[in-house]
Description:
About 30% of the residues lie in helices and about 25% in strands.
Amino acid sequence: MRSINVGLLGLGTVGQALTQLITQSQPTIRVVKALVRHPIRARGVAVRVTTDPDEIVRDPEIDVVVDVMGGQHPAMEILSAAFQHGKDVVTANKEVMTYYGPALQALARQHNRLLLYEASVAGGMPIIDAITHHLSVVPIDRIEGVLNGTCNFILSHMEEGHDYLEALHEAQRLGYAEQNPEADVEGYDTARKLVLLARIGFHTEIPAEFSAITGITGVTGHDVARLASLGCGVRLVGRALCQDQGISLSVAPTVYRQGHPFLRLQGPQNAVQVTSAVGHFLFEGPGAGGLATATSVLSDILRIRQLVPDREPNPMISLTFNEPETPAICFPLDPETPLPQVLPDELRRTSSYAILSCQLPRELAKLWGLRQYAWGEEEGPTIR
Ligand code: NAP
Ligand code: HSE
């Protein structure tokens, strides 16, 4: 079997877990060296480190460059140079893939190289492979999922009575959160993963950014407790719809009744539901964490050895972005204050919450002093 020499960009949570996994299980793969920012920093693995990207991309010994450093820059420039120097690339970096994925794929093709990125969405879950090579054989209508392990960790811990910040710090300590955790809790990380899934699922170009993104920073312990008393819970859900009118993408804290598969997710677990004419497919697995993510990276490295050909993108279809039309459940911003009287009478409401037939534009919700959660199921909770 052909041996593979790997050059790492990054030797943090994922880079170290990958090195350990390779050392323990892959006698024909060798981690040659790793690019880092702080060469003096103590690491749990013995790998030569460098601060010069050229030492990776120009090293004739290295076959595959693995990006586990994150961020758009200098990742994009280093990956471009890697293709120019004849390397294949594996990346866990959803940010660079969201903003530069199409350009990097084109460069890879131009240099007859491969760019694989399974680990960039849902950590250890092989969802990119499943959608690319299996599910998108028939048109996909809908992709929705819990795509951020940090947010799921925080929300599931808040259900157990933990404080938001305490849960966030624990997620950081366990290596789930991004370097800047704002990307997690403000919903941007979920949005990026959703864009990547929608591109492959709907076979179309989708811009890197869209506006309907709400994170979990507004979810209070009070709301989580009130939802629990209604037999409900909340998860941060990314939803991509492909309909006759176009494609719509949204990220929002979404309420489900107890028993819904998304509410069963604890800690950094992720889940993705893909809907097509064939039916619903539900995937669940660890969405963050060193070992889980390293498994997906290693699987891509092994796939490169098998030289799986890349697929040409299908023609573009029209694209419009709409405000999501899902129903919503609203709470007053101040838990002690009743709902504002300006709400239309036809809304189903109690003094402490209201159910709307569709989500309000964000500006209006803000004006009326409402915190709004998307409602993820057909029927709302019973009004008492
Ligand atoms: P991390 O622990 O913060 O490690 C990042 C590594 O990259 C560090 O070794 C850092 O060097 C190095 N690095 C960052 N910027 C650099 C620069 N400009 N030049 C040189 N080296 C640089 O991050 P991580 O959690 O391993 O995540 C890495 C990537 O995997 C990210 O794209 C992340 O989104 C993705 N990912 C992470 C997970 C997860 O659960 N952690 C899951 C899926 C995907 P120093 O150590 O010297 O600072
Ligand atoms: N910060 C990310 C998360 C890492 O919490 O899901 C995995 O992509």
